[in-house]
Specification:
By secondary structure, the chain is mostly beta strands. It is about 15% helix and about 50% strand.
Length: about 500
């Protein structure tokens, strides 16, 4: 049977024993790893054992050299005495990550050379914890103690992710314990981005908004001060808003927010003149008070839906009637994803759709429905980036001026003046943008139109160049199909 199985007939008489000091080494094998992974010098020294007398210290030294070259493995020496009295030597290699017992008992082999905290300043850690961490130095690594200190560090830094790594020391048999501290992965429901900015547009002048946020990873309160913002809407408004957010209620899938704002409006003369000429558009207002509670449910870290209400009271400029209400049900769905393919390649995709419906059943004086869809894509490779965006919108009914669409500011149809395009905004809109950046030097092409259903739809184009980062911009834009092509300068910071 032994012959049929291809095993040595006399193999049964060979036996594993303690290393027989001084015995002649017949053969040497390395099991569990490719011998070619070892350095040529180490391979030669291992092969040179054949024909030599066995000495335990020499074998142990070679095992330590194997571990020094491959710190993620454990090298164990086994000897097998042959019938002729010679010895077969085998170095068994086993990866620490593949053997739980080795990971738990690594302290039996290594002495801690140093303990490091990576990713943050050690000043953020209490003195007592730092002292306990340093007490590991010079001792065999106690896995239980290291785990306790890792939990303690995570408790002191609740907004960070703490992981423990073992790195090779400066000498064989010594290790470095590294506690790596990094930002936690974002929860499934993100906080609303900051609307802070200081923006200048040659036609619309300065706009300033400051959001001050305070809170932790799950809950946050934001107070926003609007000094004068004529960049977003047809109206130029100032005032304040308060927003309370929780993006993890019981579960990371559920979040809620409440925003209250009181804003006072200033109107461009072209807007007031256009309103006087078209009574179908709701009138201008002096002040706008809005309360907007919402609830968000996340299907995954990338897909979520939001539902709630938007209750607005508009104080009329003419005070006849004294005020109007614009109360709407709101709902939206959003998707975002980021891919990092290689160290120098990344892609970002964000898409959303929002629906608002104000009806008389909600005690709204203005009845309308508003649809907005938006897709943004960004591809980065090295120092180059391509950014593309598309937005479409439609309103039916009589929407207040703050809901009507507008193009021609520091981020849409750059180079145009929105009061030359549609001084009261429009019920229909589309806008697309394509931008290329190299070392933050940017070139862009914008296309868009805003109009009312009974008016002519005119597509406008603009192009330009500038210095653009994710937060700052210096831009010169040119309207391409205007009666007179003039340069418009824009600059600002969004943070």
């Amino acid at each position: 049977m032994l012959i049929l199985l291809g095993l040595p007939v006399f193999g049964a008489s060979a036996q594993e024993t303690e290393m027989p000091e001084g015995a002649l080494i017949k053969s040497v094998d390395v099991s569990g790893s490719d011998l070619n992974l070892l350095s040529p010098k180490l391979r030669d020294d291992i092969n040179a054992l054949v024909g030599e007398r066995l000495h335990r210290e020499r074998l142990d030294a070679l095992a330590m050299r194997i571990e020094a070259e491959n710190p993620d493995v454990v090298a164990t020496v086994r000897t097998l005495v042959q019938p002729d009295g010679q010895v077969r030597v085998t170095f068994f290699l086993e990866r620490i990550s593949d053997a739980r017992d080795l990971m738990l008992n690594i302290n039996a082999r290594y002495t801690v050379e140093s303990v490091e905290i990576s990713g943050i300043s050690e000043r953020k850690v209490s003195r007592q914890l730092r002292d306990d961490l340093q007490s590991l130095v010079g001792t065999r690594l106690d896995s239980d103690e290291a785990k306790r200190l890792e939990k303690w560090l995570a408790a002191e830094l609740p907004d960070y992710r703490v992981t423990r790594h073992i790195a090779r020391g400066s000498q064989p048999g010594r290790i470095r314990v590294v506690f790596e501290v990094g930002q936690r992965e974002e929860p499934w429901i993100p906080f609303r981005p900051s609307r802070s900015k200081l923006v200048y547009h040659a036609d619309q002048k300065w706009s300033g908004v400051l959001d001050i946020s305070n809170g932790g990873r799950r809950h946050r309160a934001t107070v926003g001060f609007v000094f004068s913002n004529g960049d977003d809407l047809i109206e130029d408004y100032s005032g304040f808003r308060v927003r309370l957010e929780s993006r993890e209620l019981v579960t990371e899938r559920l979040g809620a927010s409440l925003e209250v704002s009181r804003l006072r409006q200033t109107w461009h003369p072209d807007t007031l003149a256009a309103l006087a000429a078209d009574p179908r558009i709701p009138e201008a207002y002096r002040e706008r008070l809005t309360v907007e509670p919402t609830v968000t449910f996340a299907f995954s870290p990338h897909v979520r839906i939001t539902a709630g209400a938007s209750v607005s009271e508009l104080e009329s400029l003419s005070r006849s009637p004294e005020s109007q209400k614009a109360n709407a049900v709101v709902a939206s769905i959003a998707y975002d994803q980021r891919w990092k393919q290689r160290r120098v390649d990344s892609q970002n995709l964000a898409a959303s759709y929002e629906w608002r419906s104000a009806t008389s059943e909600l005690d709204s004086d203005l009845v309308y429905t508003r649809h907005v869809g938006q897709v943004d894509y960004q591809y980065e490779r090295g120092k180059s980036a391509v950014i593309a965006g598309l937005a479409v919108g439609r309103i039916t009914g009589r929407a207040p001026l703050f809901e009507r669409f507008s193009l021609g500011d520091s981020s849409t149809l750059r180079g145009w003046n929105k009061f030359d395009i549609a001084p009261t905004g429009g019920d229909r809109m589309f806008h697309q943008s394509l931008e290329y950046r190299y070392r933050h030097i940017a070139w862009f092409l914008d296309t868009g139109s805003v109009w009312d259903p009974d008016a002519e739809m005119k597509v406008r184009f603009s192009t330009g160049f500038g210095y653009h980062t994710d937060n700052t911009f210096l831009t010169v834009g040119f309207p391409l199909n205007a009666s007179e092509v003039t340069a418009t300068f824009m600059m600002g910071v969004r943070f």
